[in-house]
Amino acid sequence: MPDVMSALPDYPVKSSFAGIKKVLSNSGLAAIEAPTGSGKTTLLPLMLLKAGLSQKKILLTQPRRLAAKTVAQRMAQLDCTEVGETVGYRVKGESKLGSNTKIIAATEGTALAMMQHDPFMSDYDWVIIDEFHERHIETDLLLTFVRDLRKSLGPKEAPGIILMTATWQGQPVEALPEFSFHRIEGRLFPVKNICCPPGITENLPGRLNWGVKEAAEQTDGRILVFLPGRREIEAARKQFSTGRARFHISILHGGMELSEQQNVLNYQGSQRQLILATAVAETSLTVEGVTAVVDSGLERLPVFQPRLGITRLDTRRVSRATADQRAGRAGRLGPGLCLKLWTEAENHRLTDRWDPEILSGDLAAARLQTALWGSSEPAWITPPPPGLWLQAEELLKRLNALDGEGRITAEGKAIAALPLPPRLAHMVYTAGRRTQAALAAAILTEGHRFKLSGSFSRRMEAARSGAEFAGIRKQASEIERRIMGASNRDRAVLSLGELLSLAYPDRIGRKTASGLFELVTGAPLRCENCNFEWAVFPEISGTGNRIFAETGEELDLGKIRNIHPSLFSTLRRVSYNPDSFKFSVQRSELIGKLELKKLPSEKADKSERLKTVKDMVEKKGIDSLPLNKAGRLLLTRLRTAENAGIIGLPSGKPEVLESEIEDWLGPWLDNDLTASAVAEALYARLDWQQQKRLEKLFPQGIKLSEGLEKKIDYENADVPLIRGRMQEFYGQTAPFSIAEGLIPVAVELLSPAMRPLQTTSNLGEFWTGSYLQIRAEMRGRYPKHYWPENPGSAEPSLATGKKRPE
User: Helicase ATP-binding domain location, by residue (predicted)?
Assistant: First the structure.
């Protein structure tokens, strides 16, 4: 180990550096697994620099602003320099760098912006992605872009990649075949884990009280409490500040200034410190002196709802990997204690690891970044779901950030450069009053909890003054500075509502008689103090059909039409009435899915008629068409032919008729669709030769002696059937058939009252068989009718009262 490293602390990563150096020298690609407290974050970049493995710069990414600034400060301390000299940082809206800065700690989002600005990364030897296991969308994008860079430039010209994580368990290591994996054994002391006893109340304050009490009694160092968010932190601060103060209570979250965070970490008071923290204290922040961790087992993360197009903060149970990492914070100095505020039974139900954010998050910014990067096939380690990816692309097209082919536009490049989500970036870029737009964007991104409901303009007015809104005003100034000069085109000056609608055209809504608003997407929304007819709702929450908004901003329908002409459309509903055989057209003007007014009806054109008929047949089948007796007879004859294996005739099967309906029925849809028109269309499927063949093989009727003809029933029997009074068939002994004798035709013999007496396919056998019993019965019931003893040789007749030979 070179002498220049002797001053660095003896963390485990230092003793493992020889192996890491060998891996990096060979391939420039390393995946390092090291537990909390191993020194990987603060020591490895410095060792790369001091060992001569980096002649240029090193980019170290962190998932949070506070972590990036803290890591930079810690590395500067180890290097005996000031932040901004050898080590600096760059985060959203803030940086501390110098001309000689070699190591830059940056948030993942800022690192992406740096790569887009310098796509060849020509000033960098290494890109180190820390806390890779968190797998934010930006994490995956960073790795994808750097891998793409190495593929296009070659490993010698592109920076090397180092992935660092507390654990590779559950990660897709098979998608990183080019990386060498290196594990660093930690120096953690054992941590005793105790789950909450079943008898303790299930509410968080009660369990928290148990956990802090146990931690205070069993340990004597700092107590670190993990809570899901600032609301719970504030409630816990009040909970443990009442009565006789036993603790010095500190809070730690990502929204703090670096100086505030340092005051917490450097506390030297006489009272025991109780640190109430969010997930920011899980990883990169080193909280020294912690001997006990109290873990709520909860975390608050953004969850994207594709149907509503909103991202809401969802509180959920942590994974087992996260719980283990939190517990590890108690084992840095010696044996520690972790009080888990959930039961053993709940502990068994913890999931090992949550899915990466790219599988369920809002992908609009990621799609914009890939378009700006210019990669047509990103080398994802976990590909995004195609449906979410397409939804993101369609949104960006509506925002004019992508063209019809999915390529980035000039406006897309401008909004990608802004530190804002695409919706708000488009709003600021398009606005005439950019100061107003920048302030609105800052309010919507900074996450300040306002106590003002009703009109969004009340929040705008409040944010323009007051110390608690200083961060919002600072962010607004940075946004306005970044957008100045982006385009010289003239822009109309818009009202606040019109401005917000640029970002959220899908959240425009109209108040209904019930008091709810109905959005242009068709979803209902409740806003208690929004007394507007039309409004836009920039901040909405909820799930399913329960959507809420605390604020909205009034809109004028006429102005909406000017700003969002694509939202307006005319809906034509074409329907068919099979009773009247007529088509009708109902027309409405819509904004999104909301009906504004009904319009005068018009006549349906031929294409609309065809589509209506096709939709009807697809839903209800071919029998939904009006069919008269002739049409039904034709279809049954064709089906009989097909079932008999006769070729050369059109099919009569329903599925064939449905699939070919455009060809055979389309030409007959110039006017209303009657049953006779359908029958004519069906006959038109047969040419003259086919019609002759059909009539020859499958005639409509069969002629009997003495000129009588009986219609063949092809539809209501298992075999073709003719029927008539028994007397009509006297003298007939040969069987009837069609299709040149291939298909027999049955005979249904009827009484004088037209009631069935017998069905037979062989009259000769019937006359000498069961006929005799029927004759005896019928002679008594119908004595005036002719009932011969030998009907096979008798003459057919329907006459009554005439003397006949017995």
Answer: 21-186
Q: Are 214 and 194 a contacting pair, CB within 8 Å? A: yes
Non-local (6+) Cβ contacts of 439 within 8 A are 460, 463, 464, 472, 473, 476
The 3-state DSSP composition of the chain as helix, strand, coil percent (nearest 5) reads 40, 20, 40
Q: Which two tokens stand for residue 411?
A: 């406006």
How many Å apart are CA 279 and CA 295, to the nearest integer?
10
| Between residues 717 and 315, the one the model is more confident about | 315
DSSP string, 352-372: S-PPPGGGTS--HHHHHHHHH
Find the angle CA(368)-CA(371)-CA(375) to the nearest 5 degrees.
Answer: 135
Alpha-carbon dihedral angle through residues 88, 91, 96, 97, given to the nearest 10 degrees: 60
In the block, residue with structure tokens 């793409």: 148
Alpha carbon distances (Å) from 432 to 415, 487, 545: 15, 11, 35
- Cα separation values, 257 from 252, 260, 566, 764, Å: 10, 5, 44, 108
Q: Which of 417, 360, 378, 385 is nearest to 142 (CA)?
A: 378
pLDDT tens digits along 409-418:
999 999 998 8
Task: Kindly indicate the confidence band of residue 799, based on its pLDDT and cuts at 50, 70 and 90.
Answer: low
Neighbouring CB atoms inside 10 A of 732's CB total: 18
Q: Please state, in angstroms and as integers, the Cα–Cα distance from residue 403 to each residue in 371, 420, 467, 563, 775, following that order.
A: 11, 20, 43, 19, 88
| Residue written as token pair 């298909």 | 743
pLDDT in tens, 610-657: 999 999 999 999 989 999 999 999 999 999 999 888 989 999 999 999
The pair of three-digit structure tokens given for residue 343, joined into one six-digit string: 């039961």
Residue intervals in the chain for CATH 3.40.50.300: 3-183, 191-353
Sequence-separated (6 or more) residues with CB below 8 Å from residue 337:
191, 192, 194, 214, 215, 218, 219, 291, 292, 293, 330
Per DSSP, what are the bridge partners of residue 295?
A: 226, 340
Helix (H) and strand (E) counts for the chain?
28, 33
Q: Higher-confidence residue: 256 or 561?
A: 561
Share of the chain above pLDDT 70, in %: 94
Cα 606 from Cα 242, distance rounded (Å): 79
- What is the Cα–Cα distance from 667 to 785, expressed in whole angstroms? 54
- Whole-number pLDDT of residue 284: 59
Tell whether the model's pLDDT for residue 2 goes beyond 50.
no
Element (H, E) at 32: strand 29-33
Give the pLDDT confidence of 168-187 residue by residue, as tens digits: 876 777 888 899 988 888 76
Tens of pLDDT, residues 471-483: 889 889 988 888 8
For residue range 351-380, list pLDDT tens digits in order.
Answer: 888 889 999 999 999 999 999 999 878 889
Q: What is the mean pLDDT of the chain?
A: 89
Burial of 715 (0-12, 13-18, 19+ CB in 10 A): middle
Q: Are 137 and 358 in contact (CB under 8 A)?
A: yes
- Residues in a beta bridge with 577: 582
Angstrom distance (rounded) from CA 574 to CA 803 = 67
**pLDDT band, very low/low/confident/very high, at 602 (cuts 50, 70, 90):** confident
Core vs surface per residue 263-293: b (16+ CB within 10 A) or e = ebbeeeeeeebbbbbbbbbbbbbbbeebbbb
The CATH class of 191-353 is alpha beta
* Residue 522 DSSP code: S
For residues 134 and 321, what is the distance between their CA atoms, to the nearest angstrom? 10
Q: Please check whether residue 284 is in contact with residue 295, taking contact to mean a CB–CB distance below 8 angstroms.
A: no
Q: What pLDDT score was predicted for residue 244?
A: 60
Distance between CA atoms of 34 and 14, rounded to whole angstroms?
12
CB of 613 closer than 8 Å to CB of 624: no
> Which has more pLDDT, 267 or 332?
267
Residue 105 has pLDDT above 90, yes or no: yes
